[in-house]
Design goal:
Blueprint (H helix, E strand, L loop, with lengths): L6 E6 L1 H13 L4 E5 L10 E6 L4 E15 H8 L8 H8 L4 E12 L6 H8 L9 E3 L1 H7 L1
Parallel strand pairs: 1-3
Antiparallel strand pairs: 1-6, 2-5, 3-4, 4-5
């Protein structure tokens, strides 16, 4: 892994963020972030969670692995690590896609004193084309948290 790929910023909506926080309180350990496509980190140290509505990085976690495959197989193997309450809810989220991506992580934590949206904006610059996420070096990642 190169220094440029130290952290990966995941864009999350507020609804998912709130579920992740509740799920983390209820079950420590390993979690998964689910993507409808294959755009996801392969090798990084840290995941940073950018909550789009708040325009802030509010959480971080240790990246474990990226798994891509059939949506049913992934659910059977790792669905309990997700924020979805049922297979039906997950299936609705998948929207008919056969292939999904699970980003596994551990040591999820909320950032105690998140940077203001103005400070985050100075570090990240334009978020145009950023929807899938982006890699950052360690120095930049530390500026965000």
């Amino acid at each position: 892994m190169t220094n440029e790929h130290y952290a990966y910023v995941l864009m999350v909506d507020e609804k998912y963020w709130n579920r992740l926080r509740r799920h983390n309180d209820a079950q420590a350990g390993t979690h998964v972030f689910i993507r409808k496509n294959q755009v996801a980190p392969k090798e990084v140290d840290q995941l940073l969670f950018y909550v789009t509505r708040k325009k802030q990085v509010l959480g971080a976690a240790d990246f474990l692995e990226r798994l891509t495959g059939n949506y049913e197989d992934l659910w059977k193997k790792l669905g309990s690590e997700s924020c979805f309450e049922s297979f039906e809810e997950y299936k609705s989220f998948a929207g008919g896609r056969e292939m999904m991506t699970f980003i596994r992580f551990s040591n999820f934590r909320e950032i105690d004193n998140p940077k203001s949206k103005e400070e985050v904006s100075k570090v990240l610059g334009s978020l145009r084309g950023f929807g899938a996420g982006n890699y950052f070096d360690k120095e930049t990642a530390m500026q965000l948290v």
